[in-house]
Input
Amino acid sequence: IEASVEKIQNRLKTGIDASLCMSYPQPILVERPDWMGDNETNTCVICNSSFTMLNRRHHCRRCGRVLCGKCCQKETFNDIQDRYCMVCAYVLENSALNLPAYDLTKYFENTTLLTVINNTDFLMYGELIRLFQNSLKDDAARKQLQNQWPQLFIKVFALINKCVDKLVAKSKESFFTKSRAEFTAQEAIPCLQNCLGLVINFTASKDESFANFLTSHKEFDCIGSIYKVMDDEIDMQRRELGIWALRNLSTTAKNAKRISSFPTFVKIVFQTLLVNVTQSVENTLGLTYNVARQNEQILTQLLPISPIPNVARRAEFVTVFIAKTAEWSKVAQAQFFMIVGKLCMNKECRDAVAQTNFFSQLLEKITTETNTDSVLYGLLNCLGSIVEAVKEDQDFSAKFVKMASNPGVMNVVCRQMINAKSYCSVEAAKIVCAMFEAQKDIIYKVVTGKCKEAFVEAMFTLVHTDFIWEDAKKYATEVMGMIGKKDEGGIYKDVKRKVKEMQE
Ligand SMILES: [Zn+2]
Ligand SMILES: [Zn+2]
Output
């Protein structure tokens, strides 16, 4: 149960419980075929010692930089002995890093690695960023990096911007003005990948302070830089990583608002959803849900007049993606329904959704869905949002509650209210409570009619036993209060009888 509680808390916090962290190590960067020219430097690129007759130049066989003999020693990798600089040797030694969590102390104590941070060689920078992105697997490692080397992030975002400039060919200037200025678009891709990977893994936490750290830094524009990665000139894979990073950042209200303030937000959401890559659909929906929770203005934008070709009317947005959910993962399906639930909080959107067959599809799915872990959770969450939203809208709520409280749906809802293993319980109890608040007479008729047995069982269990979900208990108590004294359907009497049976 504890693990499932953890999972659910995660889901509530982030929209859903899909992986926030890139768990696979990124590939090592392309090796540089070109050697640095002997006359490009008079000092070793790592220790800065001057070259003399005795202190000779050596080239690292991997990065091609010029170094002194002390910094570029003979090492054996893959059975080949050759000269490698200390950074490359370190990278090769640690290339398979994919530990569940990693103590970064080893990095911070390595003064050779520190030379890279002050160096201007972008490729070595990419290597360093790669080391860190593969090691950030838990909050302890994230805290360590934030406290020890906060300046790394300034370089990360500078590199992201440079890579983007290179890839969209907006900038003709060379990458770094000093030595090793060669910078091809091919090399920009792994660099960009490592930078985004670092941002993703740094923010893949329930602790919002990491996302806040990145977005409140004055020396770089975190969200703005990531948006640049979404440029049409940049390939889809890099864009997917950008969305992943934005999704991790979108857990705070401030960040969600900023993210949705970009004019391309809706376009990017639509384009990515239509491409249908599982991880990317989940990230896009997670991001959209986080934004929809925080920014009511974005709701109407999410149902725009014509965001994509062939979608002429607002309502068709829901129709297009409802058809697509069948191809999506369970997590993505749940996310989609949660988003539409949020959309329905807005009257304009609700009217648009009402023009489609979304409501009947939702209710039918509730009666047939057996996956209580994610899909049913998403469906119930959606239904709860809608009932909650229409409470004040008497005409709409009378129609909607009548439709939603059919015995098929209500039996599932009652059963789920007392499902101790799933947070669906809270969602279900919330639905019943909202239905009572909105249309007491209609719902009372149903729970004293065909669903009476299941309803009495649910109320009895929630109110009179030690139930795991405090919130579900709270909603049920409220419902019992609303049923009140004029209980002609005999709910109280039946619950009391059950209590008595239990005591005996
Ligand atoms: Zn040296
Ligand atoms: Zn090297």
Summary: Residues 1-23+100-249 form one domain. The chain is about 60% helix and 5% strand.
